[in-house]
Amino acid sequence: MDKEVAIKIGGEAGFGIKVSGLILGKTLFSAGFKVFGYSEYPSLIRGGHNTYQLNIAKNDVLSVTKKIDILVALNLETVELHKEELNSGAVIIFDGLKLDKSDFSGVNLVDLPLTDLAESAGGALTRNIVALGAVMNILGMDLQLFNQELEHEFGDKGAKVVTMDKKAAQLGYDYIKKFKIGAYLKKEDGSKAGDYIMTANEATAQGMIQAGCKLYVAYPMTPATSIMHILSAKQRAYDLVVHQTEDEISAIGTAIGAAAVGVRAATGTSGGGFALMVESLGLAAMTEIPLVIIESQRTAPATGLPTWTEQGDLQFMIRAAHGEFPRFIIAPGDAAEAFYMIQEAFNLAEKFQLPVIFLLDKLLSESDFMLGDIDPDKIKIKREGFINDDELEGMRDYKRYELTKNGISKRALPGQLAGVHVINSDEHDEYGYSTEASDMRTKMMDKRFKKLEQMMADMPEPQLYGQRNADLTIVAWGSVKGAVIDAMREVEDKRSVNFLHLTYIWPFPAKRVKKVLENAKNVLLVENNKTGQLGDLIRQETGFEIKNRFLKYDGRPFFREEIIKEIKKYI
Q1: Where is the Pyruvate/ketoisovalerate oxidoreductase catalytic domain (predicted)?
Q2: Same domain, 100 and 38
Q3: For residue 178, what pLDDT is reported?
């Protein structure tokens, strides 16, 4: 298959929209296709319009398209909202809706009695499965792998439920044959062992386990909440404690307390919750306690659009909390990067004894990515900076905040008798005792900032995708990666565009960014925010101003067609 196929399932909340889409996605993934899944839903307790879109291709697919080929409309609202997105020759599957054929020129209208077929299978709740069976027929696939996925998904509900679902799928598969719609796909070789479908939240949780995280503390906040749910289910298997606190202030305080006694600990939230954490962020910095904070962005300010995506928190992360102190900001661009980079986040936090902010967003947190060739041992887990009892006994004068050449002092932990020290939120001397002496204040500030040189040396540089001497250089960070790379693949002249993607954003890699941009013929900034926060940061740190800016801030991610259209303005 050379053609990419986009399938959207839409209906009211409670119809099992995402579960249905994920079953289909996993089936096609097992058949050897590459998939990307994207969900949209309103911030309502009940009801509202939900969709799940799958983009399927033979080659890698990392983003969502605006245009779709198959629309499964479980209610009339789905047709009304998405009919303009249909490609020529697209298919709409619906049940008894009164549609005016003149409004759908070039579109195949398939009136499928979903409810009747579902009831004949044994239950009206299976109408989604009836629709998916029909989709499998349209795609030119048999039901073997689909039935296997039904067994995997619903096997714990008993044989009766699985049998009913299989019957529902077969009824939908057989009924649609009368419409004689040509097959969209042909079966591929099957996915490789070791390939997975995961959201970035799932990948982050798996990476945290791999990194040896033993405490995750959080208060629920979309779109970060699922990290807590995923880790909760794995507590016994990995000797992990997941604790839901009464609020975000308690969450970060608990994580700091655990980290102070040597536990690898993390907390997670979204922008509003992080706003409550910032005073304690400064506490972690002053006391030089390693801490990982996961922040999954959504639209703001205030409550904003709680279930939609944006990249509006970058500058906030860099300057959050009063005063000045070094920190890392890491922003993965997909689920695979999330898996590896969260492990690095724990290593860096512990090595440099400071906060690391791990920056996701709703698109990353809740979209389904395909992960291939994941190496669980790629990142070496390093427990660094501790001082043992023998060293302490030999010292007789332990200084927790000793003024060292690189600013990093050896950590003793509570319980080490010769390592007793004060953990103090006030400015302090080398022992941790409060001081207001001007010279010691200067020395301690300089000590903390001496870490920056080594921090910069340990950070991977931004990756440049594509040919070096391109006509256009795109600059972006985080979740924009997938749409940009997919768009680049569809540009006729592959040499005409390259892409500088930033993941390790702070401390800012000024030398690398400045070199790439000064050698570029033309530069385009692409960001999911109103003001171009990365662009402003680049100007601040390098003096290079990016004049061409493509910004989007409607709560939706960049659709691939939008990036392609923008690229064509410059090449």
Answers
A1: 14-174
A2: yes
A3: 85
